[in-house]
Amino acid sequence: MLERYSREEMLKVWTDDSMYRFWLEIEIAVCEAYAELGKIPQKVVERIRDKADFDIERIKELEKHTQHDMLAFLSCVSEYVDSDDSRFIHLGLTSSDVKDTALSMQMKKAGVILDSCINELLAALKELALEHKDTVCIGRSHGVHAEPTTFGLKILNFYDDVRRCKEHVAKTIDEVSVGMFSGAVGTFANLDPDVEAISCRILGLKPAVITTQVISRDRHANFVNSLAVLAGVLERIAVEIRHLQRTEVLEVEEPFYKNQKGSSAMPHKRNPWRSENISGLARLVRGYAASTLENIPLWHERDISHSSVERIALPDACILVDFMTNRITQIMIGLRVYPDNMQNNMYKFGGVVFSQQVLIKLVYKGLKREDAYNIVQILAHEAWNKKDGDFKKLLIDSKEISEFLTKEEIEDCFDPEYHLKNIDHIYQQIFPELKKKQETAEVVES
Fold this sequence. Notes:
The structure is a single chain. The strands form three sheets. This protein has a two-stranded antiparallel sheet. Strands 3-4 form a two-stranded parallel sheet. The protein has helices at residues 8-13, 16-36, 42-51, 56-66, 69-78, 83-86, 95-131, 151-176, 193-203, 218-244, 273-294, 305-334, 339-346, 355-364, 369-383, 391-397, 399-402, 407-412, 423-430, 432-445, and strands spanning 136-141, 144-150, 178-179, 206-207, 252-253, 336-337. The protein has 446 residues and is mainly α. The two termini are 60 Å apart. A hairpin with a 2-residue loop joins strand 1 and strand 2 (144-150). It folds into three domains: 3-86, Fumarase C, Chain B, domain 1 (Orthogonal Bundle); 95-255 and 264-345, Fumarase C, Chain A, domain 2 (Up-down Bundle), CATH 1.20.200.10; 348-414, Fumarase/aspartase (C-terminal domain) (Ribonucleotide Reductase Protein R1, domain 1).
């Protein structure tokens, strides 16, 4: 992945050095398992552990001749270990035992980093949702003004989406945190199953219950697809910001820092480029997810058509989602929110967005719903998109409406608090501690 979209901690998980470190850790763990079973002298394992190492440039040099990365790696390691001891390294194993188990360890480590990053985003979203719980704004459907909501409630929706993603990612990380040491086609012909059990225990993995020459790729596909869903949720947040930052809306803006520039030509520009960036990167992650689905049907006990895909898709998906999650977190932390603009937008054209309240009151006064709907729609459309459009005034001046509603009753229809009366209930569904806090306050007050 390009350095531009990479963060150091996640990038390190997927470097060649990290991969070979995992390979070496696995080879030593298997030797320790053999020693525990009494098949290798303990002193031999201690010497292997002390001396075993590798040099990436030497591995590359050897691979030019062997045309096999695992054999090049093993040859390099053997150069650091006494020849009599090195014969026990990779005993009974096939390349995939090491590679697939190492890949599981890489994904597990990446998952820990992602979980921490998601937690930071959840904290930022929670703070913003609580801060703007009562910040009234217009809700939109089809991009068109609908009815009042609060900006906090928008953020609360995002919080709940991300929380579910956290759970999905954690579940798929658990699914991929498995190791395999079952030999050439998964029959344990040259390995005792106890070697697998002990090695996995040492490495902090669960043994895969059954394998061929590889761990089944539905696990990997599930993992990357959980990242793609998370990327889609991050894009959902980004798309909302992009719309709300449009000049004719201007209800929020991405952070704009000192000395930042928006355009090489137009000094006034302040663009939502970070959010646009997230939308673009989400497309890549979805593409990687599709590629990992293609990796599931391999030939017989194994082919390597999945290998080239995973060398790109798994690191890139993890690196990108880590980057995207951090970026949206920073946007949330520095987001500029404009409540006055939200208020002004909501009351455009004399508050046409309160039309349903008028409709409901007319129904309660005895009008048929169809008749009430038609009366209100005509007046709302008369005010809609007019420079001097004033829905409230049209209602007050209407003889048809005045037969059923007083001026005061019409005025009541334009109180946004009506739409927010159950906001506390929604918040308490997401943050149960708020309900306990409210109940405690009520007990103290009583």
